[in-house]
Amino acid sequence: MFGQNSKKTLLTKSTTEKIIIDGKFDEASWKNAETATDFLMTNPDNGKSEKPERKSEVKVLYTNEALYIAASLYDNEPSKIGKELTLRDNFVTADHFGVQLNGYNDGQQEFRFFVSAAGVQLDCVYTENNGEDFSWDAIWDSQTAITESGWVVEMKIPYAALRFPTDVKQTWGLNFYREIIRDRQQFSWNLINNNINNEANQAGILEGIENIKTPTRLFLIPYSSFYLNSNKSQKTYGEIRGGLDLKYGINDAFTLDAILIPDFGQVKFDNVELNLSAFEQVFSENRPFFTEGTDLFNKGNLLYTRRIGESPSISIGDNETIEEYPSTIKLINGMKVSGRTKSGLGIGVLNSVTENTNVVVKNNDTGESRSATLAPLTNYNVFVLDQRFRTNSSVSLVNTNVTRNGDFRDANVSGLVWDLNTRANSYQFQGNFLYSIINDVNDTNGFKTFAEFNKTKGKYRYGFGGNYVSNDFDNNDLGINFQTHYHSFYGNTSYRILNPTKLFNSFRFNLNAYSEFDNKSGKIQNNNFNININSNNLKNDYFGYGINFRPFIIYDFYEPRSVDQTKYVIYPETFGAVLYFSSNYNRKFALDFNPSITFFNEKDRTNYGLLISPRYRFSDHLSFIYDFRFNRQNRNIGWVDFDENSNTIFARRDRITYTNTLQVKYTVNNNVNLNLSVRHYWSYAVNHDYLTLQNDGTLTDNLVYNINKNSNLNTWNLDLSYSWWFAPGSQISVLYRNNSFLFSRDFNHQFERNVKDAFDTDNLNHIFSISIRYFIDYNSIKNSRFVKSFTKPKERIHF
Questions:
Q1: Statement: the pTM of the whole predicted model exceeds 0.85
Q2: How far apart are CA 335 and CA 349, in angstroms?
Q3: Intra-chain end-to-end CA distance of the chain, in Å
Q4: pLDDT tens digits for 467-490?
Q5: Percentage helix, strand, coil for the chain under 3-state DSSP, each rounded to 5
Q6: In 10 A of CB 538, how many CB atoms?
Q7: Residue 587: what are its φ and ψ, rounded to 5°?
Q8: How many helices (H) and strands (E) does the chain have?
């Protein structure tokens, strides 16, 4: 239908006129600005021209301070324009306009700014490997208005929100985006050809920016918080916290981000689960400092930021207990420096320090207490060099380092990471080589590597690759890695349609295969094959289907929890199926439905699950989402203990899990939001038979072991929050939170009883908090009397 599209070019003009961001475009400068038009559909009918009655027209101006965008988005049915209100960075059912900017025009990273017809801002950093990262937030201004002929957007994007070289003449990558939500249609100014697996490389060109003298990029964000804590076991008490975030533009390409005395008390709660596996549960990072603008530091997947400030374990005697075990280790400060040179070299440094933390350990027999170090003073550091070239390829050097004060364990991990693509974006070769050095009681070195080749263009695509991990590779001091001493091979093939058919707006078929082997014995640790079909019909309802099977028995070296994973347990073949359905969210009522089942080649052993999630939009202001999940594992087999003779004890058990969540959103306007988030999680496992692991990986009945190792985890979380963005970058947030965490070996199996226990007053912790953050731009105060008196040269005293 269309070939490789040529790049459109837009010439912008400078202006000294003051542009008021009011959505009116009545300044004289707009009249002479060049217009970008003739948008093309990205999805679903890739390459189709926009309709004349829904045309898009965009103009761009610039000053020494910022870029200005004016968009006229015509619509012959303005009453049908979607304008649901929501929190920042949430698309929901609204029409959207966006601008995508790449100051280096290297086709690799874009800063994207979107605004909905309701005036809600969204911004992200886009890279081909990581997609859109909406954890990044910038300070910019926008205004929208519904008109008789459609809707309009006016935007001001300060250079402080962008990165670009210090050239006299600037050439930037540029694209515009438009979404008409009622038809689920997406458009771009420069065509994004879905036949090519690279979006940023298909942007147009912005020219005309010359001789700009950007202002100092120095921003201060002081904050103060008040917390009121209460539960049955202690008196109600309050505490006041304060701190400062600092952002400084070293130049137009590099930025320093720092936090002093950080406060993360209002971050989202973790979805804790009953974890019976050999590996720790992985949590999402919710702390803003560690989520914003960290794409450069994620090269090689060596960074799991939840390591910074997590509460480590400590070895104590059987007759000892720890008084007041902290849930986290206090972060003293954090700092990031990141940016990119004109030649495409990205440089990133992330550093954080956590404080020395001691706990009191009490001997239950003698009553004596001793002090023990839970975590020493620790420095965490990440250093990255990332060289981009040929608009779609990169090679990176990464180093992570954890240094602990005193004789505690230190760790250093280095990696070489590459992502190489042909000029036409038809083929990709990517991989890495990682090397770890651990300084502890026993020093160890290890490595991990993978290489992968992919065809990335066309309706038919494929890929294959492999991994190798040595026995002593360990990046868990600042990263996360569960398995070692294995090698694996995998492959995939897929087919997709690029334009709608008589039945589908989109359709994709995937076939994947994976096999994994233990390095020491050559035994197969894992193998699976899966087939998936994902599609959207012409009404934009989503359907997905999948089957998966493990045709051979596997040898699990991790579940037995043996020293150096020398023992293994044999698990049988499996066959499973899954169904996904998601109705079009444009409707007031929508439903997600996801049943699944897995059969084991073992008598009466099955797993099955069900997700049902209805949602209803009462108005553009109010909506709710309810999510119910049920999972059952019949005759599951897993590790439970070691007996007094050092035998490995397994159990045959039934496990049942219920998860209920509710999210209610009421948005007054695009700056004021009220949200309710509730989660009740109940999971229990009942052991029916105890088994002893044999040296050949089989299990035999154990009629002697009789310790109660049943598990019951019952948790409740409620967050009721109010947020008011009273000025750009400045926010007042009020949060009421209550939660409970109940674990037991002896428990009642009735659902109603566990729900009652979860939010029983005696079991709840209550937190009420108010936080105020205020954004200060140095340029807005530099002419104030205080700053002038502080910075003016001092008179010299002569003797």
A1: yes
A2: 8
A3: 85
A4: 999 999 999 999 999 999 999 999
A5: 5, 55, 35
A6: 12
A7: -75, 150
A8: 5, 46
